[in-house]
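User: Please check token order:
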Amino acid sequence: MANKVNSSHILVKTETEAWVIIGELNKGGNFEDIAKKKSLCPSKKRGGSLGWFTRGQMVKPFENACFSGKKGQIAGPVKTEFGYHVIRIDDLV
């Protein structure tokens, strides 16, 4: 079981927007470019990167998606109090 995860995300207001982004990614869209253009989170300046974090640092639905995935996987849409997240799991240790 991983203790730390490095992930990036794109935060949008609606589930529909999140599904559109997942579709763009599935067609080869660049995650960082899409994050810079569409994400509502300040992390968009870093292409959506949140860096490394451990359990207990993020809201539960987001954390659960990150720690239950595999490196390189796209997860989402994940609904939290902030909106809908499209998450890329960059690494786990």
